[in-house]
Structure of alpha-1,2-Mannosidase:
Amino acid sequence: MLYTLIWVWVLLPIWAQASQEHFNRNDNSKQLQFEKYSFNRFELKHYRETVKDLFHFAHENYLQKGYPYDELRPIACIPKTRNFEDPDDEITNDVLGNFSVTLVDSLTTLAVMNDRPKFAEMVKLIEDTFPNKFNIDSTVQVFETTIRIVGGLISAHLYATDPSKKVYLGEEYKGSLLQLAKDMADRLLPSYLTLTGLPVPRINLRSKFDPISVESVSENNVAAMVSPIFEFTMLSYLTLDSKYADVTRYAMNKTWALRTELQLLPMSFNPQSGQCYTPISGVGASIDSFYEYALKGAILFDDDGLLKIWQDAYNSLNTNSRADWFYTNVQSTTGQLQTLWIDSLSAFFPGLQVLAGDVEDAILKHMLTLKLWNTFGGVPERWDFQTLAAFEKKKEFTPEDIKSFVPLEWYPLRPEFVESTYFLYRATRDPFYLNVGVAILESLQTRFKHECGFGGFQDVTTGEPQDRMETFILSETLKYLYLLFDVDNELHSTRDNVVFSTEAHPMWLTPKMINNYEQNKYFNDTVYREHLRACRKRDRKSALHENERTFMGGKLLRFAKSLFTADQEPTKDISTHAQPEPEEQPDASKPSVYEQMCFPVDFAAPHTDKPQWLHSHLLSHFDRLFEIDRRYNSTLIRPKHMQNVVPMELQRGFYEKWAHDKFAHSRPMPSTEALEIVLDLPGECQLIRLPDGSIHRETLGGRNKIRLEKIEPGKIDVYGRILDPQLFVSARCKDVFKSTCDKIDRLYTPSLLYRATVLNGINLPADANLTINRKTVFKTQREENTFRDLFGQNSYNQLMLECTPIINMLMQ
Ligand SMILES: *[C@@H]1O[C@H](CO)[C@@H](O)[C@H](O)[C@H]1NC(C)=O
Ligand SMILES: *[C@@H]1O[C@H](CO)[C@@H](O)[C@H](O)[C@H]1NC(C)=O
Ligand SMILES: *[C@@H]1O[C@H](CO)[C@@H](O)[C@H](O)[C@H]1NC(C)=O
Ligand SMILES: *[C@@H]1O[C@H](CO)[C@@H](O)[C@H](O)[C@H]1NC(C)=O
Ligand SMILES: *[C@@H]1O[C@H](CO)[C@@H](O)[C@H](O)[C@H]1NC(C)=O
């Protein structure tokens, strides 16, 4: 099973590389042009070194002005510490345990950058910092401490002990990092000793539950309940003590068992009772790393159970939450749209989709985050995509206007956008993503660099900087950026399955480690063994309730709504680029990277003839480039502080540089309206995806969410075609309609028809039919009749919604 996952990694890059080499070999005269456009190794080195310098700048400052405290404030140049006065200040204290977290979390970035001397020095410093291990009187969040401290230490331990790695420490290293990781895990693990086996969110590192109030542990989110599984299972492999793996795996199983019948997980629960707190589901904050670790755990631990969880969860997301440009938050019991905003954290999802093999959709979703970045200069913590008619006429926008669609306004330099950019580059090798990386790098150099380090925006609507350098800036943001440019990094050529933790700590298992674990693992800690046994006993008692899930077959759950109403007519100029923007003038005063090259070439020569392969293949064929701007133009308004910034933009200048004229075209925005229906039928939906991308369906059974497009003559459909009045000729005939419709006269000359365009998140090809095979789907004539009465069917076998035919939904 796991092969399918791994193939994506292996196949795509090889294909891309091969085609580039082909051009290089055969056409020397064009090679240099090629290099200019798609980043040669000198440029890559330049950018890589720049990232490294930025990292060292902030890291050194932390060591001098922040250490031994948890963080350094990049503007004030003083430590940011735990709030010692107010132990109940959870926002601060959840992460800052007074355990030098920046020091620990940034360690593997040094390893990734192959900086052996500094890595060795920091390992030593960590040994000296924690002579009593983590015997500290701090109440901290289990999830945050696991991913930053335990994960950071384990990954660094892997580097230190793997002779194939450049920072391998050999004899001088005696396993101190692993001992520290184990010590921390032992202090966190009691959080699982609840009635349900689900962890509480917080624990005191010295006295366990002692000073903790009931309120502070009565709610835990799904991401936090399952996530330690990845780090803790790694710890089991390394220590042979399987209690870490088993306790967290039980919690993963248990959490997944709390899903709704739509296979969606509500975002938070009471870990003591298993009762649901927040019934919405999505891919952002509170639930993100549940998906991440289901898939990543499946790969790293070769675990089919986790793979099944990922597949079921992802399928359900695609059915219920997938929109064109993002995943929305939905009600976990009904699948209904619940919020009109998305989280900054959800920007990680395209990276995960790449890992799962869904590169095509990842490209789309990543584009939206790019748009947010270009508009606000960062990715606001929350963006409200509701179209605001009130702004249509406005010319000037105040920060308050902009706040109306940025309900959470900060951007703490989170890594998720860089992470997805990195994964997409690895999968496509398209220079477009390197270019995105350069834009991010430039922002880091110019807007986010302060006296002592990096800080994001306190408020993207005003540009006010944030005087905080969260540890993920050094451990993730800069690491992924470095890896993007470091195409030959040892992680990219290893034979082990390297998987990044949610905090970007690389993890891998060699066959030797796996064998050793399988043969010698033990679980003799009676506290946890008894606890799991008791949990399982309670599970068996309540198993009766588990089977009460009833089938909702035959019912048509209609919650049709105009979700995707196009908010404007397409502009006349539909076949070329978007509205012309003033040309960007290259900044002549800036030293060029080409100056560092060791061969003289006139790079300033204009490129009149642009061969196809100079360009971003992706952008050349991406025909929905401007759809985001048009669809969301009232919530993508640049705040003042961004107006003079020239961000990397999908504008004309950018587009001309990166896309080939011959292939580049922008599909017009659909002007049709859309609505969604949910069909709950007996049986299963069997879809086969053909190699050409089209969908072949055997029969339409089970629960299906279908997007219908209202097609009206003269409008532009979702395939970018003007709808031909001819389509309606046959519809004018009387036999299109069922007899019950005959009574309503006006329906004889319909002004609209319906067509299904999206099935369970999958875009259907323009001429696809969805067929219900009644013999397979309906068991009795009565079932079939009930359904027919609900829907109606005309003599072309087309189903009908309120007497209007759905021209590509057939019942045969
Ligand atoms: C916090 O850490 C610092 C530096 O290690 C130490 O001096 C101080 O005693 C610690 N404070 C508390 C309350 O643990
Ligand atoms: C979790 O569920 C899987 C089945 O998917 C099962 O094989 C495994 O033993 C369970 N693990 C624990 C610790 O309960
Ligand atoms: C548990 O088992 C391991 C390996 O067999 C052994 O080294 C260890 O001493 C045992 N611990 C206890 C508490 O029995
Ligand atoms: C959005 O686009 C429409 C149509 O082009 C235009 O009338 C409107 O002013 C735009 N709104 C904003 C806020 O730019
Ligand atoms: C879809 O159904 C229509 C009407 O039955 C038929 O003409 C058309 O060829 C079908 N399309 C495909 C792709 O099978």
